[in-house]
Amino acid sequence: THDHAPLAGRLITQPVSSSLLIRITQRSRKCEEQGLPDIAVPAVQGKFLNLLLRSIGAKRVLELGTLGGYSTIWLARALPDDGEVVTMELLEKYAKVAAENIEAAGVSNKVKIIVGRAIDELQKLKPSPPFDMVFIDADKPSSLDYFIEAKRLTRPGGVIIVDNVVQYGQVANPDYSDHMVEGVRRLMNAIKTDTDVDTTVIQTVGTKGHDGFLYAFRR
Ligand code: DHB
Ligand code: MG
């Protein structure tokens, strides 16, 4: 049973931050009127991303999948004043909500939202200056395509994180298939022989059940 999972998320860390972030999550939780699905990262994982960026002294971050800007704010808050998060969102409707949330969080000076198909927008980006970290949290069937672009745009020693690579354990279940799981499998299979990165998976159990981050160190 997963009954204890939400509790685990609350007990294992210091309180995760400001009333603003809590309000954004709560809004996205109950807010049908904004039309946002409740799929933002849980607070403990947002904080993990924030700590990772501070640990590596990151200044430039790329995010795929802005949604309401919840993770974007965690990322932006980890950066120095001259840092930048470039975040890509397919849907204008979500980008608009994100822009409001990012403004309310006081980090809009550090965030650039690009609206469009990430695979097209990525190809317009140059690898210089490179990104210190890329957070891939968009449509799962495109995961491998995004990862290949992320590698091109990340500096050696940088980190690429991919969300949702465990999918309640279904990625590792040979009897299960759906388009999200297959997208993750395609990425995982390609990574097995990829000498550009050193990788692991951090499995998580939290307010959103059993899932995980792929953690890739760019050689
Ligand atoms: C879902 C969760 C995610 O974190 C995501 O990026 C996309 C979808 C989901 O639970 O459906
Ligand atoms: Mg996700």
Descriptive notes:
- This protein has 219 residues and is of the alpha/beta class.
- Helix content is 38%, strand content 24%.
- The chain has eight helices and seven strands.
- The chain has helices at 5-11, 19-30, 43-55, 70-77, 92-104, 118-123, 143-153, 179-191; strands at residues 60-64, 84-89, 111-115, 131-136, 154-163, 197-206, 209-218.
- Helix 3 (43-55) runs parallel beside helix 4 (70-77) and helix 7 crosses helix 8.
- The protein binds 3,4-dihydroxybenzoic acid and magnesium ion.
- 3,4-dihydroxybenzoic acid is lined by residues 39, 137, 163-164.
- This is O-methyltransferase.
What's the quick description here?
The protein has 219 residues and is α/β, with parallel strands linked by helices. It has helices at 5-11, 19-30, 43-55, 70-77, 92-104, 118-123, 143-153, 179-191, and strands spanning 60-64, 84-89, 111-115, 131-136, 154-163, 197-206, 209-218.
Keywords:
binds magnesium ion, 7 strands, globular, binds 3,4-dihydroxybenzoic acid, alpha/beta, SAM-dependent_MTases_sf, 219 residues, S-adenosylmethionine-dependent methyltransferase activity, S-adenosyl-L-methionine, SAM_O-MeTrfase, O-methyltransferase, 8 helices, 38% helix, seven-stranded mixed beta sheet
